[in-house]
């Protein structure tokens, strides 16, 4: 434990907290500071100037990362009849109806995304306490409540992710793995930044994007120049 703490201190010491890093500088720093051998996720944090107490200022949306996520997402589909075959043919890892609802209600959560048909939503609604805190509740806005099961599964497998603000006005998301090239990470970041910008609530006044941070799964947090977001949005 002491060695881990020492290692964390060494990593943190590489970050100049008074500096605003460029995109390239931030990614290179995270790559150099990677404390473990597994391929870590590059995480992005947007601090937004929204009032999360107002329902019309909650930010939520989806985006397809052109270069993929670097993750093998396990997709679960809740449906009936022919839709089950459609789901499995499209690449779903699990597909079922009432039996899976019961399994999830008992605490099973070995999946990363949930897609449901509209006729299953009465049962899915009962899983709010399990799926809600994990951000896995399917919604029409995210395209995860749909009759086009094949399209939803394929999009998720191809790199479609959902983002939303929390009660502090923070959006936590990711743009790939540290093993990705700078160019691929920038392409994914451009798509994410554009999506967050498009999701700006009409009622927000003043600065919408306040702060931007990059980090890796077990690495330090790096404050990034907000002009990187503006450049990406234009690019």
Q: What does this protein look like?
A:
The strands form 3 sheets. A 4-stranded antiparallel β-sheet has the order 7-1-8-9. A 3-stranded parallel β-sheet has the order 4-3-5, sandwiched between helices. Strand 8 (209-216) and strand 9 form a beta hairpin. The protein is α/β, with parallel strands linked by helices and 235 residues long. It has helices at 2-12, 23-33, 82-90, 98-105, 121-124, 128-131, 149-158, 182-198, 227-234; strands spanning 41-48, 60-64, 75-78, 94-96, 113-116, 160-164, 170-177, 209-216, 222-223. The chain is globular, with a radius of gyration of 19 Å.
How would the blueprint of this fold be written?
Elements: H1 2-12, H2 23-33, E1 41-48, E2 60-64, E3 75-78, H3 82-90, E4 94-96, H4 98-105, E5 113-116, H5 121-124, H6 128-131, H7 149-158, E6 160-164, E7 170-177, H8 182-198, E8 209-216, E9 222-223, H9 227-234
Parallel strand pairs: 3-4, 3-5
Antiparallel strand pairs: 1-7, 1-8, 2-6, 8-9
